[in-house]
């Protein structure tokens, strides 16, 4: 279907679409500017409330296949035309550092009419013939957490994405439970997903640049089970995650390791240690090295990292461990203050780099494996 057919179908013309695009909130403008006029008009008609008489239009259409930018703030929307499907609300893994705890429910649950809404979105994306974009499962919930065993909504989503494959470029699944993907029905679906259908607009790009069209990002930040039990109490064991990664690799499924979040490690400045703050030394350099070596030995694509943020939950108290971690941050940052941005406290960047990130990056470098900051990882996913 050509773009002008879509325009006829929805009784709009390119001029009207482009006029709508001109009213977009400036923070979304760079996304529109990347496309040709027909595509711009289609994107504007699909994502913007074109019947509104407001001078400035934001992206307001509620849907399951969301336009995705975890880094959007008041001034910018830097991740471009990119989708996220949060298959569930909440997460049963209950990681103490989870950034979604600030706005997600405590218990994992299914969204009302998820399947119906998903199909509606996918049909509309096809009808509008939107340009293909990467899709991420999921940024605020683990798509393979325990509830998936009974509900299978992630499996359903993957199967539907296969039907609508030409409207998506990379498919990225982020999880702490990769062993779920080893069940035959998931594995078969994943293998189908590694190919783009004939005639896909980006087929040559992916082929020419040897970029995988699907990858699994497995989150594994600790090498000791005791430390994982402290920070990731509801997630599958480290051994289980490592074994599943090895099996996915044996099946030629591309995998990225997320050593995420990075935390402060001993020794802290002035001879203090994490135990002074009732916290384990969960990420010694030797422990991190084990994970990096594992990534290298198993031919993983690259490593993704970010430094832990201390979330200020909106409707509940801050978990004890994160309260302690905040005290560590305040101690490490002295005489500077923590930065409070986007609902969370962060270490000042120069301190985080020097104390936490740089020694870790050196370890990655010594194993010849690339490490990307999470934002860089997201933006470089085509
Ligand atoms: S697995 Fe991810 S979404 Fe789930 S609790 Fe842990 S950090 Fe949050």
Question: What oligomeric state best describes the polypeptide chains here?
Answer: single chain
How would you classify the helix and strand content by structural class?
alpha/beta
Helix-residue proportion:
25-40%
What ions, cofactors and ligands are bound?
iron/sulfur cluster
The CATH architecture of the largest domain would be: Alpha-Beta Barrel
CATH topology of the largest domain: TIM Barrel
Spell out the CATH superfamily of the largest domain: Aldolase class I
Output the CATH class name of the largest domain.
Alpha Beta
For the secondary structure, the number of strands is 13
Q: Mind summarizing the main beta sheet?
A: 8 strands, mixed
Radius of gyration: 22 Å
Q: What is the residue-averaged pLDDT?
A: 90
Order of helices and strands: HHHHEEEEHEHHEHHEHHEHEEHEEHEH
Question: Could you say which overall geometry the principal axes of the C-alpha atoms support?
Answer: globular
Widest sheet: strand order? 1-2-5-6-7-8-9-13
As residue ranges, the low-confidence spans are none
Total helices: the number is 15
Overview of the molecule:
This protein is an alpha/beta fold and 382 residues long. The protein folds into two domains: 1-61, no CATH class; 62-379, Aldolase class I (TIM Barrel), CATH 3.20.20.70. 39% of the residues lie in helices and 14% in strands. It has 15 helices and 13 strands. It has helices at 3-9, 14-22, 29-33, 37-47, 114-128, 148-151, 153-163, 184-193, 203-208, 225-231, 238-250, 285-297, 320-333, 349-366, 374-379; strands spanning 65-67, 83-85, 88-89, 109-110, 133-137, 168-175, 214-219, 255-262, 303-307, 310-311, 339-341, 344-346, 371-373. The strands form three sheets. The protein has an eight-stranded mixed beta sheet with strand order 1-2-5-6-7-8-9-13. The two termini are 23 Å apart. The structure holds iron/sulfur cluster (SF4). Residues 91, 93-95, 98, 100, 141-142, 176 line the site of iron/sulfur cluster.
């Amino acid at each position: 279907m050509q773009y002008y057919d879509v325009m006829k179908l929805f009784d709009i013309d390119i001029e009207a679409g482009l006029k709508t695009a001109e009213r977009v909130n400036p923070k979304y403008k760079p996304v529109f500017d990347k496309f040709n006029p027909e595509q711009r008009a289609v994107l504007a008609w699909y994502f913007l409330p074109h019947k509104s008489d407001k001078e400035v239009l934001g992206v307001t259409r509620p849907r399951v296949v969301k336009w995705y930018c975890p880094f959007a703030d008041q001034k910018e929307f830097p991740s471009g035309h990119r989708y996220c499907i949060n298959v569930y609300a909440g997460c049963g893994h209950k990681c103490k550092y989870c950034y979604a705890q600030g706005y997600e429910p405590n218990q994992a649950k299914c969204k009302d009419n998820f399947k119906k809404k998903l199909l509606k979105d996918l049909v509309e994306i096809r009808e509008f013939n939107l340009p293909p974009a990467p899709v991420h499962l999921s940024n605020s919930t683990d798509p393979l957490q325990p509830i998936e065993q009974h509900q299978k909504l992630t499996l359903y989503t993957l199967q539907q994405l296969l039907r609508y494959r030409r409207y998506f470029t990379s498919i990225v699944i982020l999880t702490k439970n990769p062993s779920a993907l080893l069940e035959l029905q998931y594995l078969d679906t994943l293998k189908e997903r590694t190919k783009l259908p004939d005639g896909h607009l980006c087929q040559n790009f992916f082929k020419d640049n040897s970029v995988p069209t699907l990858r699994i990002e497995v989150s594994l930040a600790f090498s000791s089970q005791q430390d994982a039990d402290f920070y990731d109490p509801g997630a599958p064991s480290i051994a289980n995650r490592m074994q599943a990664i090895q099996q996915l690799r044996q099946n030629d499924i591309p995998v990225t390791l997320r050593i995420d979040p990075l935390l402060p490690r001993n020794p802290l400045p002035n001879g203090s240690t994490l135990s002074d703050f009732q916290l384990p030394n969960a990420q010694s350099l030797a422990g991190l090295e084990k994970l990096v070596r594992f990534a290298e030995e198993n031919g993983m694509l690259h490593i993704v990292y970010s430094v832990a943020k201390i979330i200020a939950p909106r409707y509940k108290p801050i978990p004890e461990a994160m309260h302690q971690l905040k005290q560590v941050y305040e101690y490490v940052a002295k005489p500077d203050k923590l930065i409070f941005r986007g609902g969370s406290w962060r270490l000042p960047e120069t301190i985080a780099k020097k104390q936490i990130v740089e020694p870790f990056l050196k370890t990655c470098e010594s194993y010849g494996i690339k490490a990307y900051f999470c934002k860089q990882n997201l933006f470089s996913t085509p």
